[in-house]
């Protein structure tokens, strides 16, 4: 078996067998590849191993966890934020992105690597004031859409008000315009049935439009308060969206 390994951190990269070991050995040497040749099973899981060199040549070594102090937990930062210092780094360790590098808005995975040690990954989440406002505005928009599509009360019945239902109402209004004697029995969202004539369908359309306009009015008012900084939490956004005009 042949295993290629990383010349810096000495971690195994790939393992494979070949029927012509001599030719493969010559090829790898000609390419300047770092490799170890071995027989039998590996002494540990592939991703736990690195390659060391001693007086007997190359051999496997089991990689150790980084010191506890190096293994930082996932962290949230306010802006501005940079990759933090990592204490007790072993010799040859690197941090990617580098310590002190500016962290962008959002989620960044930081990798700590050191020769003969297992890599450690932790995540840094940076949220700006703009991010928080954008999140609250998106939350309010979702509440707006829920209000628009959540149905309307019409003559004691709950009528669906999503886009599909709104199109049905428009088609019914067109049918009623063409035929003054038009009528139907509308299947309501609560499972009941409601007889409707031409004049009724116009009133239902107005109720759905009023619900739509009210939802957008609540959203516009809530968004303005978020931008102004008077709403800063989802609970406050929910309360504002729940409040009528």
TrEMBL record:
Could you tell me the superkingdom of the organism this chain comes from?
A: Bacteria
Tell me the ranges covered by the DUF4376 domain, including all copies. Answer: 132-239
Give the matching Pfam families.
DUF4376
Q: Which InterPro entries match?
A: DUF4376
Report what the protein is called. Answer: DUF4376 domain-containing protein
Q: Which organism is it from?
A: Methylobacterium brachythecii
């Amino acid at each position: 078996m042949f295993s290629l390994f990383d010349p810096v951190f000495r971690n195994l990269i790939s393992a494979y067998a070949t029927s012509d070991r001599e030719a493969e050995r010559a090829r790898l040497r000609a390419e300047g590849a770092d490799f170890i040749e071995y027989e039998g099973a590996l002494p540990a899981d592939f991703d736990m191993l690195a390659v060391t060199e001693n007086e007997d040549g190359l051999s496997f070594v089991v990689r150790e966890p980084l010191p506890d102090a190096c293994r930082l937990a996932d962290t949230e930062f306010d802006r501005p934020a940079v990759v933090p210092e990592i204490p007790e780094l072993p010799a040859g360790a690197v941090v990617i992105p580098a310590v002190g590098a500016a962290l962008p808005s959002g989620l960044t995975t930081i990798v700590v690597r050191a020769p003969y040690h297992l890599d450690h990954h932790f995540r840094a989440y940076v949220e700006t004031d703009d991010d928080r406002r954008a999140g609250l505005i998106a939350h309010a928009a979702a509440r707006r859409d829920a209000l628009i599509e959540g149905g309307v009360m019409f003559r004691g019945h709950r009528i669906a008000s999503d886009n599909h239902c709104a199109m049905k109402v428009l088609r019914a209004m067109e049918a009623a315009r063409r035929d003054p004697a038009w009528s139907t029995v509308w299947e309501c969202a609560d499972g009941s049935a409601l007889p409707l004539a031409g004049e009724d369908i116009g009133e239902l359309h107005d109720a759905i439009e009023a619900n739509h306009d009210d939802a957008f009015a609540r959203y516009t008012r809530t968004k303005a308060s978020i931008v102004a900084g008077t709403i800063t939490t989802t609970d406050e956004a929910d309360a504002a969206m729940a409040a009528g005009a």
